[in-house]
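Archive entry. Fields below.
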Amino acid sequence: MYKKKFIYHFRVRYVESDQMGFVHHSNYATYFEFGRIEWLRSVGLSYATLEKQGILLPVLSLSTEFKRPFHFDDEVRLEICVDGDPTVFIDFSYELYNVENVLCTTAKTRLGFVDGKTRKLMRCPEIFMEALNR
Amino acid sequence: MYKKKFIYHFRVRYVESDQMGFVHHSNYATYFEFGRIEWLRSVGLSYATLEKQGILLPVLSLSTEFKRPFHFDDEVRLEICVDGDPTVFIDFSYELYNVENVLCTTAKTRLGFVDGKTRKLMRCPEIFMEALNR
Amino acid sequence: MYKKKFIYHFRVRYVESDQMGFVHHSNYATYFEFGRIEWLRSVGLSYATLEKQGILLPVLSLSTEFKRPFHFDDEVRLEICVDGDPTVFIDFSYELYNVENVLCTTAKTRLGFVDGKTRKLMRCPEIFMEALNR
Amino acid sequence: MYKKKFIYHFRVRYVESDQMGFVHHSNYATYFEFGRIEWLRSVGLSYATLEKQGILLPVLSLSTEFKRPFHFDDEVRLEICVDGDPTVFIDFSYELYNVENVLCTTAKTRLGFVDGKTRKLMRCPEIFMEALNR
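PREDICTED_STRUCTURE:
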């Protein structure tokens, strides 16, 4: 079973702040997304290439707990894990930490492997499994 | 117990599409948000005014199931319910339907009543309870 | 020459605010966009359908003057005009007014008619000219 | 006169793509923004701190020429210059290049130095001029 944790650092952008002075909660979905894309790159896969090869990975469910807000210019550490073995789905969990190492956000997503032509679910492709087990 | 359902119609904007041709999933959080704000207006409350009065309502948790995608220019029907009685929290559930009346998305959020000065949780304010029971 | 002015009303969304308390300037491009799309609908054209027919209308240039900020929940009146006759380009100008009828923002865009297959510029299609002159 | 060019590299995010397969044009304003913020950091200034000190820098005008589109996952090189000496305004110009070193986008912005309390224009603050001349 794939267990490695991937860590990605980024900084909160101004446009992501709202008038409460917090990161608007709609931005977290994109944080998880670019974390996943960099995780893929780290195991040797380009999501851009996957899509060109007809492998889409839409998000099927997302749940997020916002424990503490982030603010503009905060440095964020995103930790991503793959939960269990991919089937037609792949599950990820996410933790966001601030610079004081406080856990501020947790999340889980389920993505589906979708055939770009038929737009139907398909099993996790070989190249994906190989990359996970490399 | 507050039981009324609020219905809000909107159309998917171009900027919300992604290269898969679907609405990018990060937009749903904002759909739920402007639905809540129009629901508030429908019970006689302005969220803009609430914030000026020092009552903030940040989102503390959000979970979403994406059953079927929406696409640019789709007409969407958003149905919002308040789940249970507000405490220091207020819980909402959401359903998004397409024009064929197919349920495409379901979601739940928990928001907290936060004092704008202390930035701490507080009980649901009177004006809010009154609006709900009106 | 096409001269009609199209007027579109909308309200500023919470997510569009930033920590300055203003509408973040990146949102105006999307305001102009959904104004254009509703203008198209008003002359009998669906941009969604145009794209399916292989007619793309990417924005080639955009200039905006931000004279006064908008804020969350503001009601905005957007006035759009087509400037001159469409060629391979179509030029629009935009004015945004607040509820006190103060002109807060002006903008101009140039869009290009692009063939969806070749991805090259093409002349303004007949159905478009007919819609303008209807 | 301040002449240095600041260079910032970033990658296009998935959420920034639209159904044309291009970066949606509304994202460029945010590209210029985080470029400016990193430029400020490079001359020793934190925009987050400036705002806390009551110095706001809203965008007053923005014009952009989109010569060639960017796509998801593209690596982008952003070059920023300060144009002329800051007064109550500061002017920037921007160039975006792809990995083949092709100039894809050019832009200009005017920002105003605004007093956070009075919300009125003020002269470019000393700490800002010093940072520029360091």
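CURATOR_NOTE: Residues 5-133 of chain B form a domain with the Thiol Ester Dehydrase; Chain A fold (CATH 3.10.129.10).
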